[in-house]
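So, is this right?
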Amino acid sequence: MIKSASNVLGIIDESTSLSEYDGDFSLLYNGKPIEYLQDCFFIQI
């Protein structure tokens, strides 16, 4: 479960790529991207 959550956050952060998809993923809050989600996740664990 931890690895799956980490991979999803890495895709949103763009530190993990999806070779079969061409495009950008991002998570916005008030129009600004939220960054370093994967790093924050690992710090909490």
